[in-house]
């Protein structure tokens, strides 16, 4: 069960795996995520469903190696099986035919979770205007898939190595200046700071915006409280009440502070794993 059917390396730190998971594939909807565990002693890793195929029974995940658990996942190969793969979790995106244009913004690894939302919105008959961005050209992922899922695709890189030089928010602001009325809804997924800035631009144009909160999660069932966020002054759990919320109501500063709280333990776990890998390599 949960066999890695295919694995691709897209950049120094970004990988995509296609996992055999027929029940998850059958039920998956845009905006939802899974929690996987690589081995019996592994940590739980929440990852968004980037694509799925109910007929063929697979789920695609795209992940960036940022610490011990994602490094462990990246070391698994095609044919290996994951210990657990639970989902789909979370409330699906509120997509429908809005009778006009929708604006979709994906930053960095956030391009993967925004893809199924764009795809579904286009299938439903919306005119999908997408903006994808990353620090540099090599980190722009899923360009072909995003082109297919969009009626218009804009690309931005911070260093100008591809597309327009600058942030996704520059293009977002230009689009809203020209056609704010025509844009019926907005989704933005990426690093918290990007979602905060996109929300600021949306607020300046009096627009509502959806964001997907990747707060730290433990059980993924609403019991442990690890993923709590403040939305409209109320406590919400990203795993069961989200992960999508109206960005206009999210307290991003509090969320970003909470994400940093385990930094020391995370660094230690990564160092221990790297040391173990080095020892295994030198023992042949
Ligand atoms: C609903 C949800 C969907 C997600 N979807 C994706 C996805 O599609 N692709 C992807 O690459 N990542 C995604 N993430 C983030 C991913 O789960 C974390 O990067 C991963 O769990 C980190 O584990 P680690 O042990 O490798 O790193 P750790 O050692 O735990 O952390 C290393 C660094 O990553 C940061 N970090 C840890 N957990 C998170 C988190 N949940 N969100 C953001 N930063 C974190 C830490 O602050 C630290 O700086 C998602 C998170 C959530 C909650
Ligand atoms: S992860 Fe435990 S309450 Fe959400």
From TrEMBL:
It comes from Desulfurella multipotens. SUPFAM superfamilies: Ferredoxin reductase-like, C-terminal NADP-linked domain, Riboflavin synthase domain-like. [2Fe-2S] cluster binds at residues 224, 227, 239. CDD domains: DHOD_e_trans_like1 (cd06219). It holds the Pfam family NAD_binding_1. This is Ferredoxin--NADP+ reductase. InterPro entries: Cyt_c3_hydrogenase_gsu, Dihydroorotate_DH_Fe-S-bd, FAD-bd_FR_type, FNR_nucleotide-bd, OxRdtase_FAD/NAD-bd, PyrK_electron_transfer, Riboflavin_synthase-like_b-brl. Binds 1 FAD per subunit. Binds 1 [2Fe-2S] cluster per subunit. Residues 1-95 form the FAD-binding FR-type domain. Keywords: 2Fe-2S, FAD, Flavoprotein, Iron, Iron-sulfur, Metal-binding. Its cofactor is FAD; [2Fe-2S] cluster.
């Amino acid at each position: 069960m949960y066999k890695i059917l295919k694995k691709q390396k897209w950049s120094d730190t970004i990988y995509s795996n296609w996992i055999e998971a027929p029940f998850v594939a059958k039920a998956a909807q845009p905006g939802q995520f899974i929690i996987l565990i690589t081995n019996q002693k592994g940590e739980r890793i929440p990852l968004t469903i980037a694509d799925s195929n109910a007929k063929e029974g697979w789920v695609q995940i795209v992940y960036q190696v940022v610490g011990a658990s994602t490094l462990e996942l990246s070391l698994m190969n095609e044919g290996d099986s994951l210990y657990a793969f639970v989902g789909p979790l979370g409330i699906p995106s509120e997509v429908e035919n809005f009778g006009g244009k929708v604006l979709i913004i994906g930053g960095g690894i956030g391009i993967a979770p925004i893809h199924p939302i764009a795809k579904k919105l286009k299938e439903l008959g919306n005119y999908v205007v997408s903006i994808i961005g990353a620090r540099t050209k090599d980190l722009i992922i899923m360009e072909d898939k995003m082109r297919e899922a969009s009626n218009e695709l804009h690309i931005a890189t911070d260093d100008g190595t591809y597309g327009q030089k600058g942030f996704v928010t520059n293009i977002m602001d230009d689009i809203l200046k020209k056609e704010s009325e025509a844009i019926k809804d907005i989704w933005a997924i990426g690093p918290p700071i990007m979602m905060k800035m996109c929300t600021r631009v949306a607020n300046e144009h009096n627009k509502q915006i959806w964001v997907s909160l990747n707060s730290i999660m433990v059980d993924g069932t609403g019991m442990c409280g690890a993923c709590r966020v403040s939305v409209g002054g109320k406590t919400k759990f990203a795993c069961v009440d989200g992960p999508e919320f109206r960005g206009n109501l999210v307290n991003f500063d509090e969320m970003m502070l909470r994400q940093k709280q385990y930094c020391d333990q995370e660094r230690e776990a990564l160092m221990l794993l790297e040391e173990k890998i080095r020892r295994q390599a030198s023992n042949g």
